[in-house]
Specification:
The protein is α/β, with parallel strands linked by helices. The chain has six helices and five strands. It has a single domain, classed as Rossmann fold. Helix 2 packs across helix 3.
Length: 159
Amino acid sequence: MARVYLICGKIGCGKSTYAARLREERGGVILSVDEIMLAVFGLYAGERHDEYAAKVRAYLLEKSLELIGAGVSVILDWGFWTRAGRAEAKTFYESRGIACESHYLDVPDGVWRARIDKRNRAVAAGETTAYLVDEALAGKFAASFEPPAREEIDAWVEA
């Protein structure tokens, strides 16, 4: 039976890598807001980034229903940085009778910072299309990320 996996974690902590591994192990399609945003706008969507990202999320929620209806599991590689965002997504699916699992990547600060540095080097070298995590983006993230409580999460992954 098709289900939804919500991938939660800090920016640059390894969510996309984890989502790809989950896809290999369990099957399904990864839906990534960043992937669409980067394909359409490149590295800079300007001051309307958050507005566009919200529209992409809304679109992908609806598209995910189509995939699930076709029997395909969906892996949402979005970060789910806030309690409200996690709760809204779970309610969206559960109210439709769709099985939904939350997975949280719990990464120690030292490992997280090393992953950010590695990612930034790969972006600067043109080896990957991802957002460069500069001080401004790191600050925005720090101000908005709400670590989940254990009861919010179905799979707590320590990396």
